[in-house]
């Protein structure tokens, strides 16, 4: 069973007083549980539109999207919203943190829509998630008191706090320096590996794309597999060596465990 699949997906828009514009053209992409996929493309190639399709934010003009082998068009808008909130985590280039809220409050926000024990334990779950990304000492810090890398870690914690099955990252290191960016990618990889979440990384940076196991290029709305030695997947040792030694908050990750962070009913 595939987790998410796009089959012959096309997206066409009609700008005012202009001819129809095809942004995605016959896209085929199957994401399996635990998959790790990168999509590279230049600005204007359709990456943001593809991300919206993968995140169930938009519907295709033609073609089909399935989640757990069920056509997404069978879901109501409210059902799509619930599925997206429960199963998909977004990591963006811009951190989108609430400026007047602490790191803990930012990460707690998605859990306000939970029910039962998860709702009542939301602050503990959020605190454990921040500890998982190495920010247990920054729980009460406001975003403007955090470095760029720390803000991105808060954003990652917020996106993963509900235990998504699919992580969608849109240029996640675009606002970071090289060393911090590599550290952040190592963090996402480690959390995904330990939770079994699939990853789709959309980027223009071949160094970031190379971390994935499968690679695609999006050009003028057409998605094709990349068969280029420069994109040969990195081994886990390679990824560790690329991450700065001083920026490794996951030394005790096994001891913490994401299952503890989510609780038994998350």
Notable traits:
23% strand, disordered C terminus, single chain, 266 residues, alpha/beta, six-stranded mixed sheet, Rossmann fold, four-stranded antiparallel sheet
- What is the count of helical runs? 11
* Domains, number: 1
Described by strand count, sense and barrel closure, the largest sheet is: 6 strands, mixed
- Which structural class do you get from the secondary structure elements? alpha/beta
Architecture per CATH nomenclature, i.e. the level-2 architecture: 3-Layer(aba) Sandwich
The sequence of SSEs as H and E is EEEHEEHEHHHHEHEHEEHHH
Give the spatial strand order of the biggest sheet: 6-7-8-3-9-10
Shape: globular
Briefly note the CATH topology name: Rossmann fold
Low-confidence stretches: 244-266
Brief characterization of the structure:
This protein is an alpha/beta fold.
Walkthrough of the structure:
The protein is of the alpha/beta class and 266 residues long. It contains 11 helices and 10 strands. Helix 5 (122-132) packs across helix 6 (148-160) and helix 6 runs parallel beside helix 7 (178-195). It is globular and about 50 Å long. The model is unreliable at 244-266 (pLDDT under 50).
Topology:
Elements: E1 4-13, E2 21-31, E3 36-40, H1 47-54, E4 62-67, E5 70-71, H2 77-87, E6 88-92, H3 103-108, H4 116-120, H5 122-132, H6 148-160, E7 166-170, H7 178-195, E8 198-203, H8 206-209, E9 214-219, E10 222-225, H9 236-242, H10 253-256, H11 258-262
Parallel strand pairs: 3-8, 3-9, 6-7, 7-8
Antiparallel strand pairs: 1-2, 1-4, 4-5, 9-10
Helix pairs in contact: 5-6, 6-7
């Amino acid at each position: 069973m595939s987790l998410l699949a796009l089959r012959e997906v096309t997206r066409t828009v009609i700008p005012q007083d202009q001819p129809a514009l095809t942004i995605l053209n016959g896209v085929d992409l199957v994401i399996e549980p635990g998959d790790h996929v990168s999509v590279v493309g230049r600005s204007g190639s359709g990456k943001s539109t593809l991300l919206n399709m993968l995140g169930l934010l938009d519907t295709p003009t033609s073609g089909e999207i399935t989640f757990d082998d069920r056509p997404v068009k069978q879901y109501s808008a409210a059902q799509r919203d619930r599925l997206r909130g429960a199963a998909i985590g977004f990591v963006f280039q811009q951190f989108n943190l609430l400026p007047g809220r602490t790191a803990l409050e930012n990460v707690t926000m998605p859990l306000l829509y939970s029910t039962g024990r998860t709702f009542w334990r939301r602050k503990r779950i959020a605190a454990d998630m921040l500890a998982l990304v190495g920010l247990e000492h920054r729980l009460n810090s406001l975003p403007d008191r955090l470095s760029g890398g720390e803000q991105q870690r808060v954003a990652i914690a917020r996106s993963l706090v509900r235990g998504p099955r699919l992580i969608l990252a849109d240029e996640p290191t675009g606002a970071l320096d090289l060393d911090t960016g590599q550290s952040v990618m190592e963090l996402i990889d480690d959390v995904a590996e330990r939770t079994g979440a699939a990853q789709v990384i959309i980027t223009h940076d071949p160094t970031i794309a190379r971390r994935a196991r499968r690679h695609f290029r999006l050009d003028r709305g057409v998605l094709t597999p990349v068969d280029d030695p420069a994109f040969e997947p990195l081994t886990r040792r390679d990824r560790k060596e690329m991450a700065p030694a001083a920026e490794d908050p996951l030394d005790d990750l096994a001891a913490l465990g994401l299952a503890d962070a989510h609780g038994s009913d998350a």
